[in-house]
Amino acid sequence: MKLKLRISQFHLLILLFAVIFFSFTVSSHGLKPLPSHQDDEDICPRTQLTTDSCPINCFRPDPVCGVNGVTYWCGCPDAHCAEVRVAKLGPCTVGNGGSASVPGQALLLLHIVWLMLLGIYFLVGLL
Q1: Tens-digit pLDDT profile for residues 89-120
Q2: Least confident of 41-50, 74-83, 86-95, 106-115
Q3: Would you say 87 and 67 are in contact if contact means Cβ atoms under 8 Å apart?
Q4: With bands split at pLDDT 50, 70 and 90, how would you rate the model's confidence at 28?
Q5: pLDDT category, 4, cuts 50, 70, 90?
Q6: Of the candidates 32, 41, 31, which has an alpha carbon nearest to the alpha carbon of residue 87?
Q7: From CA 54, how far away is CA 104, in angstroms rounded?
Q8: How do the residues of the chain divide into helix, strand and coil, expressed in percent and rounded to 5?
Q9: Is 103:11 a contact under the CB 8 Å cutoff?
Q10: CB contact at 8 A, 100 and 106
Q11: Contact partners, residue 63, CB within 8 Å, separation at least 6
Q12: Which of 2, 36, 57, 84 yields a CA-CA distance of 20 to 30 A from 25?
């Protein structure tokens, strides 16, 4: 009985160490701000557009991605007509509004799994 108790305490200590270690790893990486919260720097230079030139008609697509996650297919003038700053050149990708990178999301998922395992361990240990 004592051996089983020592093994369960050992597993609990390892699990607790892993949870604490992963939480420090997640918090040590700085958070990237959303494109809408960055400075007022625009990738495209601001040009004075008259209301007569909006909407923009283009013959060749030149997509840019606005900070609102919408792709403007006629380029910078189209985004400026919509009064939206440009986040990046090229079309917006799915999930572009999020700020977390793929490794950061994977680490967060791993952290959630550890917490769920810890919760299940305590529930089973109490029953």
Answers
A1: 888 887 545 555 667 778 888 888 999 988 88
A2: 41-50
A3: yes
A4: very low
A5: low
A6: 41
A7: 40
A8: 50, 5, 45
A9: no
A10: no
A11: 71, 72, 73, 75, 90, 91
A12: 36
Supply the pTM of this predicted model. Answer: 0.42
Residue type for 95, please?
G
Give pLDDT, residue 51. Answer: 59
- How do the domains of the chain map onto residue ranges? 1-30+99-127, 38-96
Fold topology of 38-96: Wheat Germ Agglutinin (Isolectin 2); domain 1 (3.30.60)
User: Token pair of 16, please?
Assistant: 């607790």
What are the residues whose beta carbons fall under 8 Å from the beta carbon of 65, sequence distance 6 or more? 71, 72, 86, 87, 88, 89, 90, 91, 92, 93, 96
Nearest to 87 by CA among 74, 108, 110, 70: 70
